[in-house]
Amino acid sequence: MPSRLADAEQTLDLPPGYTLVPLRELGDAFVHGCAIAADAGAGALVWVRRYDLVEFAVVLEPDEPLASARRALFAGMNAVADAIAAHCPPERDVGFGWPDAIMFDSGLLGGARLGWPADCAEGEVPAWLVFGVILRAAEMAHVEEVQTAAGVALLSEGFAMIDTDAIIGSFARHLMTAFDRWNERGFEAIARDYLERLPGRKAGERRTIDLNGDLLVGPAAGSGPPERSSLVDALAKAAWYDPQARGPKLG
Fold first, then answer.
1. Which of 108, 116, 183, 223 has the smallest number of CB atoms closer than 10 Å to its CB?
2. Helices (DSSP H) in the chain: which residue ranges?
3. Residue-wise over 237-246: b if at least 16 C-beta within 10 A, else e?
4. 182 near 75, Cβ under 8 Å?
5. What is the pTM of this model?
């Protein structure tokens, strides 16, 4: 079993198994989630309620070594995409940029981060993982219009304010469903859903996700070794994230 959620009383729009941990507007859900994960336990969901961002993080407790447990990122990414798709206007596309960027109609909407204990070795089972998400809900008033060309925001793409709040509850339910699928059908079902939303680069290429979460892309003809993209390296870069703005990059 890849992860489990602790039993907890239902709060707000979260299903049983989650405990809401609210933060003030200036808080950082991901950083706070990593700070409290050891004590808060699985299912703690940190929420920073902001107008301009949808920001939250959830604590997970994996039961496999860190090297393979990081694949929880893909279950989380699928859950976010499914939640957005459930609330977005019809015929709109939710996609990914490897491995952690979330795209909406080809514009950068936000992304995810994954945290684990700093002293956990690759072969050890981590006491916790934290999966954090930031989505741009509204355009930032202080950013010039030309800078926002590469990014999109939910409220400017047909979502209502109530939808942005509901996305978190929907994510929580989809995440539980994703882990159930992982348990019942294996990680291949999670990888398949993720790869369907990841744009291909060449016709006929063969893509898989390795046991350690790396992306493997083989040539269409099947000759030669696959090209490997490191999950750990990509997570460290978080190419979608602007640490100064503490949100998705705008250009």
1. 223
2. 29-40, 66-69, 72-87, 161-185, 187-196, 231-237
3. ebebbeeeee
4. yes
5. 0.89
Q: Which residue has the tokens 């957005």?
A: 84
Strands 44-49 and 19-23 come out as parallel
How does pLDDT run across 11-68, given as a tens digit for each residue?
458 999 999 999 988 889 999 999 999 999 999 999 998 888 999 999 999 999 999 9
Chain center to CA of 235: 11
Q: Is the pLDDT of residue 87 over 90?
A: no
One-letter amino acid at 106 equals S
CA 80 to chain centre: 6
Report how far residue 140's alpha carbon sits from residue 168's, in angstroms, rounded to the nearest whole number. 21
Domain boundaries in the chain?
3-201+232-248
Instruction: Report residue 126 CA to chain centroid gap.
Output: 19
Average pLDDT, rounded, for the chain? 87
Look up tokens 């994703």; give the residue: 178
Asked if 217 and 201 touch (Cβ cutoff 8 Å), the reply is yes
Tokens of 6: 């602790």
Task: Determine whether domain 3-201+232-248 maps to CATH 3.30.930.10.
Answer: yes
Strand stretches in the chain, DSSP E? 3-4, 19-23, 44-49, 53-62, 94-97, 101-104, 107-115, 129-136, 206-209, 215-218, 227-229, 241-242, 247-248
> Per-residue pLDDT for 86 more than 70?
yes
